[in-house]
Queue: 2 jobs
Job 1
Amino acid sequence: MRRFSISALLKEAANGHQGWERQWRAPEPKKEYDVVIVGGGGHGLATAYYLATVHGITNVAVIEKGWIGGGNTGRNTTIIRSNYLFDESAALYNHAVNLWEGLSQELNYNVMFSQRGVLMLAHNHHDVISFKRHVYANRLNGVDNEWLTPEECKEYCPPLSISKDIRYPVLGGALQRRGGTARHDAVAWGYARGADARGVDIIQNCEVTGLQRHHDGSVKAVETTKGVIGTKRVGVVAAGHTGVVMSRFGLRMPVESVPLQALVSEPVKPVFPCVVMSNAVHAYISQSDKGELVIGAGTDQYVSYSQQGGIQIINHTLDAICELFPQFTRMRMLRSWGGIVDVTPDRSPILGKTPIPGLFVNCGWGTGGFKATPGSGHVFAHTLATGEPHKINEPFSLDRFRTGYLIDEAAAAAVAH
Ligand SMILES: Cc1cc2nc3c(=O)[nH]c(=O)nc-3n(C[C@H](O)[C@H](O)[C@H](O)COP(=O)(O)OP(=O)(O)OC[C@H]3O[C@@H](n4cnc5c(N)ncnc54)[C@H](O)[C@@H]3O)c2cc1C
């Protein structure tokens, strides 16, 4: 793989940029692989990358029914943070933030990770108590999080209105300075390029339609629209379509798939220095490097695969944004879109084994899995390589819905973006 560098850029600039190679190949599937990953989103590609780099397993195929990063990886609002309440979640998401901090260098690909800080607003007494509890719990886990007064919130984010005369006045906020955003497409492309360079086959426009098993029940092959591919290990990383894939394999998953929407404004000069989230009014906002305000909404209330979502959900979010940032009432919105998110009952992911020997699953990231991409790929690669969970993903087994050892981030924060 040719490294991106100043000298490579200067050389190409002198040649009219004619010499850049394709960033990954477009191979036809082989008859057999050591590991097959179903789903070419950020998590699937990161898993393949760490299988190759950490575990030396390179006979791997990532099978993607559309194009890589075309699922939720390319549709999300890119908020990255690790200030989750429970110890298990803090460990998982902080593992990811640690990896984000060196990711551009590791991949030799600029993922534009920007630690501009994530400020979570408190609007009522319950929010204040709950966020302060998060701050204390996070600090015990070595995760940075601090409490700001309304005036300090305003200082950190000048466009914020701290007027007391609005429906949901700002009573304070929890700030994680290490949090921020990254460029979602670049994350998928960087992992794809790194995995491909080490021999991983990325097979796009190929849908996995079924699973073949040996007499003892273990995995034998996957059936795809490009034929049958033999393998002993399959990792399903299909986000909102996990339920569909797993039902084709004969398993029913504890996930519901619902639309989640986002929208962007026309681009403007830099006006918004950080990320602001408000769980109570359900809106979150940041500004992209292109200048667009990137705004996210809540999920639809109904299970659906529509990739659209209800207009009333976006209206509700824009009401909240205009109340918190009155100057944005004059902005024009350019486009909106939806993704299908896979929501578990406790809003925590499922990462590990399934009852079928050789079949592993990584799903349930719901509205908040982009931030976990490097950490998720890293621990899932360990699980696929060794057949056993990494200690970080051990608590996130499918089994917890049988044993009752839930990690209830839904009750903790009501939102997980
Ligand atoms: C609007 C929106 C806003 C969000 N905001 C945030 C945020 O701010 N911060 C955050 O952390 N998270 C956020 N998320 C959640 C985040 O996007 C996801 O949790 C994360 O991107 C999931 O990554 P993934 O790689 O698992 O899934 P995906 O990127 O969806 O990849 C799964 C892939 O599997 C493929 N696939 C499905 N079925 C098959 C099949 N049968 N055969 C082959 N391939 C198949 C799909 O085509 C897809 O490309 C948001 C999501 C949405 C929709």
Job 2
Amino acid sequence: MLRKFKGVFIISFIIMAMTMVMPAHIQAAEEKAVLATAPMVSPPITRKKPATVIVELETKEVVGQLKHPLTGDAVEYQFWTFGGTVPGPFIRVRVGDTVEFHVKNDASSIQTHSIDIHAVNGPGGGANASQTEPGMNTAFQWLALNPGIFVYHCATAHIPTHIANGMYGLILVEPEKGLPKVDREYYIMQGDFYPAGKMGEKGLKEFSWEKAQMEHPEFVLFNALSAGGKLEAKVGETVRMYVGNGGPNLISSFHIIGEIFDVVYPEGSMGTPPSKNLQTTLIPAAGATIVEFKVDVPGNYILVDHSLFRAIDKGCVAILSVTGDEAPKIFKPLKSGAPGGH
Ligand SMILES: [Cu+2]
């Protein structure tokens, strides 16, 4: 008996000693996810093996402005958010990663919040495991089985109201070999908003159930409450955009005026050949896509939902500013305002 105990002790000691001297890359890696604020994205994953990734996300109820980016028309609105922004932070993991997901609900919240991550294989996408009361924490763990760009959103009743108030974001599950290298990556997310009362009146607006049920948004916006930076590129660069649609109601006809998407991963699909040379791509409510394009000519390129009343009248507009040398072989004006004839 004593001999057996000694044997176990010696084996345990050897394993412990080996672990202590084992190179770091052989040990199961554990890392904290780098979150990014829209329109920026988390950096590409360079490691070649899965890891345990710890994600910490905080739900917050904040007052901010719903603002039309062209006209400047704005109202104060009571948002509910992940991380204080709409959309919530960009999260990036890799196929095979074990994700330890922590939800903290700020003590100042009035509502319980939670998360349904569309990248999860498991009941509710984590919704039941993450119902988090104000001032509390929850956590759950999941294995990233499918590559793609996925929406996450709050899943506390009444769920459409939590989504309408801004509780959504994107998580990228990179394929094992990663995505092709590009020069710039951006994160865009559309949402439709239903503030109560008449627009133009002063004062804080809350959510209008009636307008939402009728699907009559006052605002349709990209990155409604996020000042993480500008969309910029230089002539000759290839740009990748991860574009999500939080809804809760509308389907987006995503288009960039003056550009053609060289590559589209339709609805974020990976593992199938991507589509090429598309003008406008559909993004369902609670869906996402990835578009890539090379910018050839300098100027301002306008991102829109090409259901254009939403863009011009309700604010679904963002601008990608491209600088660099003119490229007259590709595009040049010939004549402006000349009278008569051709
Ligand atoms: Cu919520």
